[in-house]
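Fold this: Transmembrane amino acid transporter protein-domain-containing protein
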Amino acid sequence: MGTKYVDIDTPASSIFSSFGPSLDENRPLLSRSTVTSYTTTDDHEETVIDELNPNASPFSGIFNLLNTILGTGMLAMPAAVATVGLFPGIIFTLISGIASGTGLYFLSESADRVEGRRASFFAVSQLTYPGAAVWFDTAIAIKCFGVAVSYLIIIGDIMPQVVISFDSSVPKDSILMDRRLWITAVMFGLLIPLSFKRTLDSFRHISALAILAVVYLCAIVIYYYFFASDFPKPPPEEIEWVHLTNGILGKLPVFIFGFTCHQNLFSVHNEVKNNDRRSMIRIILSSIITAGVFYELIAILGYLSFGKNARGNIILEYPVSWFVAGGRLAIVICVLFGYPLQIHPCRGSVDKILLRINGDKENKNSPFPDPPSTVKHVAMTTALLIGTYTLAITVSQLDLVLAFVGSTGSTAVSFILPGLFYFKLNENQPWTFGKTTSLILAIFGFTVMTVCLSYNIFILVSH
């Protein structure tokens, strides 16, 4: 394997949402964190944190977790609230935030059991359930694949609206108004070449734009609810305080999806200067509470602005204007650069799954196996590109995709694995509140996954 060592001192950040998982769970995320060296073997990198001088600040940890949490889930929040009613929507958002924060705490406590600053899902699974690594990779692959699909759907939904903002005379039957055109154009024009890259370091700097997009969306929601006098509000009968039906089973995963950032917790734990329990709790609480405020704001005001007719992508609901067009473009740009950041870890997880299926004894238990051959790399990337493109062209409901991703990958990463890890590491200890809660969290995760996934499959098949 080709190995090289370099000294670096650079900021690195996750992206919008999602943007989902970062490039690798051991990869440096935090601004100005000192990394003395890293070993790279094309796809896989092993980051070695200077254990004597990790100097990432708590604020950097908060920023990067927050940057991971705030993503495509917020666009579907008002529609999720419309399904259950205003009061249950507020409660479900609160419960999802608390449960996700609890999962982050259990992962942080589990990271303390790993020697040095080299905590990762693989390292913890080796201490708890060595055979569970394949399930973790499966969960990450599902989540990243689903988020990538949601990005393409967002591009297809928003770009026709952007066109109208620049030229309102474009007829509705114009090819420029076809979502499939824009998905195809960005796929072949930009995303395919970017997705085949083995390293994606240059994309980390786009994360500042991601936060701006979140703030911009909040500004749009606030303006049209409080200050746009010509913006029609829904009649009172369209605003329901409680509307509990079996549809809640389809929307609950959307709330869960919104708070998923657990794939980056170990990187934060490894790199922050002071990673003791109190410091990590502050980082986790600050991230979850801040994200919760954003989500509640968008969910409540978005629902009050459109009532039970709120669609799965709130940015599409607002009238054509330069102000709204700017917010839509900001989201599209973030999504464009977020897509390769989902394909990269998804491909890495698929590679590890294939290694186990093929029985590669040398690599399947290694946290940093040999990189795939060029042929395998191209084959996996091509399969992922075709799969995400086909689904995005076929499925136009963003909230449906988020419901499936939330009930599978997000539930496993946020609830099931953190609960099981903490419980296993403390199985010989007396039953404490933490140990009991970890078991409850894991059971809750399994229950949500089973019930909500079954319901979503039933609805999909029946329609």
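DSSP finds 14 helices and two strands in the chain. Residues 35-462 form a domain with the Amino acid/polyamine transporter I fold (CATH 1.20.1740.10).
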